[in-house]
Amino acid sequence: MKYLSLMTICLLPWCAKARITVAPAGGVAWSTLQKQLPKGSAGVSTWRAGVRFEKRLTQHLYLQPSVSYTRYGYSTLYSGATVDYFTRAADLPVMLLYKTGLPCQPRFVLGGGVLLVQQFGSFAKAEGRSPVEVPSPRRSGLGRGYALTAGFEMPSGITINTSYHMARLGYIMVPGAYNYRQINLTLGYIVNKVSRKK
User: What is the C-alpha separation between 160 and 169, in angstroms, rounded?
Assistant: First the structure.
C-alpha cells in the first residue's frame, strides 16, 4: 500500500499543473494463469473500472497513467467441483501511447508500459454457492508486470480500448507468486472537452 501512496503523491503535483485529459472507463475482462496447475486451470470472466489520465508529449506521443479496480483469477477443480478463485486488485499501469491523426479526428491508439498491481484480498466461488473469503497468500500485496493496449478514439471523446495485462501476483490459496494474464475490453469517455480540441 505504501507504493500506491507514493505514486499518488508523485502524480498529484503533475496533475495539478499539467494540461491533462481525464477519461473514466470500464468494461469486461477475462483472466487466467499463464501456466497450467497440476489439476488443470481455466480462465474466468471478470470486469474492471477506473480513470485514465493523459499528458500530451508531442503531436502523437502521450503519457498515460491510470488506476482501475479489477479482479484477477482462474478456475480449477477442487474436490470434484469447479471453483473460481479471485483476487481483488487496483491496477496502476503507466504507458506511453502513440496516436494517429489529430485530436479533432478519429484516431487509432497503440501503446505499452509498466504495470503495478496492489492486491486487496481474495475470495472463492463454487458452483451453486455464495462467495467465500479465503486467506490471502503470503506473497500478496504489490505485484509487477507490463501492459499493452490498442484502441480507437473518436472526436466526440468516446474511446474503445482492448488491453493485455501480465502481472506477477501472490497465488491464491498456495504460497508463492504466479503470472496472471488479463485481456479486457473497455469503453471510456474523455471528460474535459477543451483538451480534445487542441
Answer: 27
